[in-house]
Amino acid sequence: MLTYALPGSLVMAESLLVGASLLNIFLAVxxxxxxxxxxxxxxxxxxxxxxxxxxxxxxxxxxxxxxAWLIMKSNYKNIKKKHRIDFWIGxxxxxxxxxxxxxxxxxxxxxxxxxxIMIGLAILNPIYFLCMMVGAMKTIQIGAxxxxxxxxGPIFYFLSPEWSILLGGLVGGTIAYFIGELxxx
Amino acid sequence: xxxxxxxxxxVTSLATFSSRFLGVxxxxxxxxxxxxFRWFNCLAYSTLAALIARTxxxxxxxxSDASYFSRATVVLFCLFIFFISKRNFVYPTVISAIMMALxxxxx
Lengths: 185, 107
Hints:
The complex is a heterodimer.
Chain A: H1 6-17, H2 22-32, H3 36-41, H4 54-60, H5 66-75, H6 81-109, H7 115-135, H8 140-157, H9 164-184
Chain B: H1 2-27, H2 35-57, H3 68-84, H4 90-106
């Protein structure tokens, strides 16, 4: 309920198992979840409206996660800017509640599931995200961002598994940005 | 041990929320038409793509027991389903779980 980001939760669990200190856990989770910063900066300016109280933004940023972010990115143009934050709170509450309920069900049912079924369920999430990302490739800039991220993330894994996602995102995203800007100009 | 787990969850929550909260603070000074916003947009999409690729190619947990061949087969087939179903998200998602379970049993 409080952590609400899968990679960070996995890092916390792994760190606990090896007996890491709280400071180490904080730093490890912070690095792994640093991707949430560009996700927030690339979404919240689309929802900010002076008629809305700021607490809504501070409170609802907890809902930033891949699924809710992609849903909002795909639909924000259909909603008036003034109401986007309320729409976002609705999406965020729904995905967050589903995640909490799903976690409970998964925790208690995992002992009774066949290993092959668990492997099948494990790939469900990445495939859904992948399809949403491919579906979002409507401009050259976003298309290049997705393709370069898909390529560079695994390549950087061989250099540094811990930094591969951030490095892949930073390098791929920056190259894609310049590709898009050059194309526009 | 239980106290440590509670503290670890609190520390993890703080570390996770701080990135989001800093993002909101930064957003207050960024216009959606600015170049900075477009750059962050590219970073976000690229970072998520890198995360998804890593989850599939170098998975942690039970998915690492599945072979590269079976994972690649599921990904390519589901993308094919996604395109022929006019970009429907439900069909490839459901098919991926069924196909992966069957492949991991027989391969």
